[in-house]
Amino acid sequence: MDVFEQWESNVRSYCRTFSDVYVSAKDCKMVAENGKRYIDFFAGAGALNYGHNNTYMKRKMIDYLENDGVIHGLDMFTTAKRMFIEIFQREVLAPNDYPYKMQFCGPTGTNAVEAGIKLARKVTGRTGIFSFMGGFHGMSLGSLALTGNLHNRAGAGIPLSHVTFMPYPHGFMDTFDTIQYMETVLSDENSGVDKPAAIIFETVQAEGGVIVAPIEWMRQLSDLCKRHDILLICDDIQAGCGRTGTFFSFERAGIVPDLVILSKSISGYGLPMSLVLMKPELDIWNPGEHNGTFRGNQLAFIGGTAALEYRKQINLEQAVKQKADFIDNFLNKEIASLDSNIKIRGIGMIWGIDVSNLADKEISKKVVTDCYEKGIIIERAGRGDTVIKIMPPLNIEIELLLQGMNIIKEIMQKHCAQTVNEGDIIVHA
């Protein structure tokens, strides 16, 4: 029995799929202890939009460390924080006239979600939150209450209350007017549903199976919140920081949520950091009313500042759009054609291959397992984990991207050709 099996808790999860022991990682590749190299189509679950050990960011952080820069500062003023605030305001907020103030929370996204819903309740004086079926917002109790997955919710051990789940525009709800449903619920004095403090949503339900919200739906959702004096919270933890093309994933809809939650790749380098953006009139916190020993990770400020510099230097937004077109074309021409029941969904550089309607209900697990054997780290998502999720670092070289996509195609071809129906092998051309 190895040290991990003997001493690490059963709660560990990713290592059960990616079972090698890793010793190094650079850009879009990881290297295992046994020397095997892997193409990373996982990107730290979205925390590594700029790849592993990005050279530019690493140099900035090493310089900061060698000059004895402040590492732990609670929420005190530091030069690292000032640099990040200045560049974030200048490069991200100002070009779109976003009015947001910044709150630096505890290390992970779930803490920022907790802060966001706490603030929404404080501002409105209401307790309820509307969340969406299929959404994922974190694993601490408040965030978990907003999360739809029953397996995750069961781990709480107590009832998760004050949240009403609304239908997301997907599946049977493609033909169901979810906005009108919410309008009716909010307007009907006999609906039994109180007006919430906020509605929290993801523009792309990543863990939910890479489900992309339509632009018009997002606009209608924003209008609904304005009509009913409800705060709109965009959880941009996984889809933000350039993953969908623009820095914020909601930019394509032209809306301005009241609060925005960022984490994962906001630090640039994969360091823990989370951030709540709020319209200034909502900033009614009393000093220390939401705090934490590790709020405002100083080294993450350095990485986050370097990330914004790096994005501009390499014109990352344009590069993502080009790679997005490549992935879109490849998946729809080379993968969707293997079986009419395969569905392709995605935007920017987050894509899903939905195999839930194939006869072999284990095909997603088999594909991910074979991909790992062939040297690709890729995960599953969605209901029943039936969506193969493609999420490489944004700066992956096109040659490496093509190499990885061709391996996925090869493995998909094999498993689609092995689809069995009543004992006969059906080959889907």
Automatic annotation (TrEMBL):
<dbReference type="GO" id="GO:0047307">
    <property type="term" value="F:diaminobutyrate-pyruvate transaminase activity"/>
</dbReference>
<comment type="pathway">
    <text>Amine and polyamine biosynthesis; ectoine biosynthesis; L-ectoine from L-aspartate 4-semialdehyde: step 1/3.</text>
</comment>
<dbReference type="GO" id="GO:0045303">
    <property type="term" value="F:diaminobutyrate-2-oxoglutarate transaminase activity"/>
</dbReference>
<dbReference type="GO" id="GO:0030170">
    <property type="term" value="F:pyridoxal phosphate binding"/>
</dbReference>
<keyword id="KW-0663">Pyridoxal phosphate</keyword>
<comment type="similarity">
    <text>Belongs to the class-III pyridoxal-phosphate-dependent aminotransferase family.</text>
</comment>
<dbReference type="Pfam" id="PF00202">
    <property type="entry name" value="Aminotran_3"/>
</dbReference>
<dbReference type="InterPro" id="IPR012773">
    <property type="entry name" value="Ectoine_EctB"/>
</dbReference>
<dbReference type="InterPro" id="IPR015421">
    <property type="entry name" value="PyrdxlP-dep_Trfase_major"/>
</dbReference>
<keyword id="KW-0032">Aminotransferase</keyword>
<protein>
    <recommendedName>
        <fullName>Diaminobutyrate--2-oxoglutarate transaminase</fullName>
        <ecNumber>2.6.1.76</ecNumber>
    </recommendedName>
</protein>
<keyword id="KW-0808">Transferase</keyword>
<dbReference type="InterPro" id="IPR015424">
    <property type="entry name" value="PyrdxlP-dep_Trfase"/>
</dbReference>
<dbReference type="InterPro" id="IPR049704">
    <property type="entry name" value="Aminotrans_3_PPA_site"/>
</dbReference>
<dbReference type="GO" id="GO:0019491">
    <property type="term" value="P:ectoine biosynthetic process"/>
</dbReference>
<dbReference type="InterPro" id="IPR005814">
    <property type="entry name" value="Aminotrans_3"/>
</dbReference>
<dbReference type="InterPro" id="IPR015422">
    <property type="entry name" value="PyrdxlP-dep_Trfase_small"/>
</dbReference>
<dbReference type="InterPro" id="IPR004637">
    <property type="entry name" value="Dat"/>
</dbReference>
